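#struct-help
A.M.: can someone run this one for me? Single chain, 500 residues.
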Amino acid sequence: MQNGTTNGTLEYFDLKDMPHIIKALDRNQKLQPDILHLIGNTPLVKLNKIPKQEGLQCDMYAKCEYLNPGGSVKDRIAYRMVLDAEEKCILKPGKSVIIEPTSGNTGIGLALAAAVKGYRCIIVLPEKMSDEKVNTLIALGAEIIRTPTEAASHDPDSNIMVARRLVKEIPDAVMLDQYNNVCNPLAHYDGTAEEILWSLDDDVDMVVIGAGTCGTVSGIAHKIKERCPKCIIVGVDPFGSILAEPEEMNKSDVQMYEVEGIGYDFLPKVLDRKVIDRWVKTTDKDALNMSRRLIREEGLLCGGSSGAVMWAATQAAKSLKSGQKCVVILPDNIRNYMTKFISDQWMEARGFKPVIKHDKLPWWNVVLTKNMIQPITCISHEATTLEALEALKKSAAPVISIVDDEGAICGVFTADNARKRLANMAASTSEDLSQFIVKKYYTVDVTQAPALGLVSRMLDISPFVVIVESVYSTKKPIGVLTSEDLLQLVTEKSLNLSCS
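D.P.: on it. Structure tokens below:
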């Protein structure tokens, strides 16, 4: 650790004393030796429609980090960490194994570098991360290990702890550790910030940046504060995360948020809160709807965290006047979320967007009631995998629910997921049932009077919908609906409604 300033109980790096790599843009260079040389020098683009619609007076610019070769701002730190580790002989070409815990984008950047340079690469990421990220990683040759989304950072099952364990078990394994590696903020201190200052002639009044590992916000903030002290640095943190301050801002009943790549339940060492002037907390609904606006109204094919940063910017930039300049960092691209917030059905299922209307379908707005649903078989979370398979076989349904000691649903067991684990992950039916539980599935609560139209929209993107009933704070499974069930149900409803 270099001498540095303190960040709460953490010691922060003194970026000025580090070796620097300033990459100048040579527009006359027509050819590049490999794709890694195209990382950085992303465009700064003026935003037009959204700032005007939000009544903002300042000029607002988007730093389009999603145009990096791997699709995100994390390409910068991945490449910088690899170069640094090679220079220090920590990484040895043809021998070392790169292992990294990530929400996906750093993993893609590392997998990209590993593919070009010939390293074996193992990426450990939580289950909530999109299938698109996983498939991109696999295409780049990386090996994937998934961990429970709900596992806290210090939990043995978290992606960080699993990665640390693998480093000890696998010969020649190296964890570059983006959370504690000074190359994370340095990549932005030397690169991203320099590019912003160059584009705006060292004259910028506000920069709005999402906080994940926090290298982006810390690195950019340090450089810009040195050259443009008047600039206000705004950090963006989702509800459910603890990065913002004062600490009171982090109080929330949000247990899990959908936006990927920002927020954490611990303070990474590369976070320096002292250079952040203001924090804005965001919700999934605001963030993801703003991402869709950036795509539709500004033509920027960005991801979900970009929407969080842009929404925060529309709040923070209200204090700026005409002629002042605000820069918004857009971290990643649309590729990672084609089956997520880009999908109307996905947004509707989570209440982030109103369900589409079908006035010509008489059953569409009919409220789902208990007498309409097929009962669901429930088994205890303490049951064995073989017992779950037997219960599934007897039920003749595509899914059974797993419940805790209070009868609350804690997951589902499906034949499809069991087959995938047995076939693709060399799992065994002797393993604990927890290894086979599916925790990502669609539910509707009958106590909230859901319409059949909502169930139909969910079935557009899922083979089944689990019906639950809230009893105080406990959600108890009471049934399941498939497309076949709903088809029979709505056919009967349509006939009954047309006859009445």
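A.M.: thanks! The first strand starts at residue 6 and ends at 7.
D.P.: also worth noting: The radius of gyration is 25 Å.
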